[in-house]
Every structure is written in C-alpha cells, then in structure tokens.
Write a structure and sequence with these properties.
7 helices; nine-stranded mixed beta sheet; single chain
Length: about 280
C-alpha cells in the first residue's frame, strides 16, 4: 500500500494541533508569519518585486477551517505538502513537532491567528513594515500574499496599531502597497484598490461560474495536466502561463491563469485538474 505525504501528515495531525495549542497557551509564538523563500514567489525578483507570502495550515488541518470553500479536489491537491511542507521524518520516537517542523509552524501560525487575533495582527503589521523596508533597501517593490495556503477574507479583519489611524483592514493600513491572493469565495466585491484577487477554479466550479467571474472583471486560475501542458484557450478565453510569475495583479484581464499540476494534483481524477489538449479540448 502506498503511503503518501498526506497520509503521514494525517497520522500525526492530532498531536501537532494539541502541541501547538499547548505551546500558545504557555506563551510560545511563531518565529515569523511571512516568508520570501517560496519557489514561485522568488520568480517575482526577475520583475523587480519581492513577494512576502504567509502559509497557514489549510482547510481544517489546524482545527479551524481557513478554507471555507475548499473542494475535495482542492484539499487533495493542496500545495501545503509540496517542497519543505512535505518533509516529514519517519522516526516515530520523535515528538510530532520535530517530525514535521514546517507543518507544525503552519499549525502554530494558524492557531495564533484564531486564538489571539489582535496580537496576531500586531505581529503581522510589524512584519509587513519590516518587509517593506527590506525590499525597498534592496531596490525592489514589496508585495504581499497573505493567503498562501488559506482563503481568509482579510478585508474583514481589522488590524491593531495600524500605521493609518482607524484602518478597517490591513490593506487600508498600507494603502501604497500591493496585496494579492487567490480565492474560492464568491462575491468578494468592493475590495480596497490595493488588493487584487484571482478566482480559483475547483472541480465543483461550473463553466458558467468561470465565465461569470471573468465577465465581472476577475481572472480565473485553473490547474491543467502537467503532461498535456497548458492549452492556448479554454472556454473561449486566452490561457496565461501562471507558472512564469506569481504576480497575478500584472496579468492581462479577461484571462484564464493556467497552472500546471504539481504534487498530488498530478494524479487527480476528481476534475480539479483539467486534462485538455493545446486547443482546450478535453482528453
């Protein structure tokens, strides 16, 4: 029987959650909330941007659902276990947090947000401020993606100690800084001008919804077979190569953002991953 990374993570998830909760209650806090080491966001450097990304424990992994509209295909193909997130030691004698260091950090970070939201937002504001300064010292434009592996409506979360008095969201706290995310939550309109969203298609998304999103001014990201590659068009819309850069706010409008399947999404049969030829015809 093939034991996958997701299986390994599921076997120690309860222990990771319990350990994180106890640690937070005892005063432990995440070492950092944001990172710049994501392989995809590192591609932003070529365009003169430094992207800071935040990774939570997705869906219900932390004990709280931070991906309320995630489909089974989305959960199964989540990039949470890609790269360093998939490093889980087989030594069962080790504490869970030492067996899955990255996963523990993501669960701790997520629980910090859900348990101590005000303190979390203080920390996030400080990290964003430091990130802006570090990027500008390097001659780069800072950008921030807060939902690296989550789908939280950050426009509804009020920051504490904002550099802008009475800011209603983190975006209003930093009005000159570009933020962006993917989302599966429909109807997120009237957003701050510095927050760009790309709708994320799942196997439960109808073609009509895809078209509706694009017609309402929001590009749609879709995952395509890595073997067959990206089509030139899909559903009548041009397909952009979303793997070249993560800077979705620079994408041409009225487009499909094509992402090639990675990790477990390469084996997806739920419909989350699209299997089409270069003409966009299903295979």
């Amino acid at each position: 029987m093939l034991i996958t990374i997701n299986d390994k993570l599921a076997s120690i998830a309860d222990a990771l959650r319990a350990t994180a909760t106890t640690a937070l209650l005892n005063g432990e806090r995440p070492k950092s909330l944001l990172t710049v080491s994501n392989q995809k966001t590192l591609k932003s450097l070529k365009k003169g941007y430094r992207t800071f990304i935040m990774h939570f424990a997705p869906a219900m992994l932390s004990g709280s659902n931070v991906c309320p509209h995630a489909s089974p295909g989305c959960i199964g193909g989540c990039l949470n276990t890609a790269g360093h997130g998939g490093m889980i030691k087989n030594d069962a004698t080790l504490p869970a947090r030492d067996r899955a260091v990255v996963q523990y950090a993501r669960i701790l970070r997520t629980q910090f947000f859900t348990m101590y939201t005000g303190e979390f937002m203080d920390s996030l504001t400080k990290e964003i401020t430091r990130g802006i300064k570090s990027a500008e010292r390097a001659g780069l434009i800072p950008t921030f993606r807060l939902n690296g592996t989550s789908d939280i409506k950050w426009e509804n979360v009020r920051p504490n100690n904002s550099p802008v008095v009475n800011a209603a969201s983190i975006f209003e706290a930093f009005p000159g800084i570009q933020f962006y995310d993917y989302t599966k939550i429909p109807g997120r309109q009237s957003l701050p001008p510095n927050y760009h969203l790309t709708y994320s298609r799942a196997e439960t998304t109808s073609d009509a919804t895809v078209k509706e999103q694009i017609e309402n001014g929001r590009n749609v990201a879709a995952v395509f077979s890595a073997t067959l590659g990206l089509p030139e068009t899909w559903l009548g819309y041009p397909v952009l190569n979303g793997d070249v850069s993560d800077l979705r706010f620079l994408d041409a409008p009225n487009s499909i953002v094509g992402l090639t399947a990675k990790g477990s999404a390469k084996r997806d049969t739920s419909g989350f991953t699209l299997y089409v030829d270069t003409d966009g015809i299903a295979q």
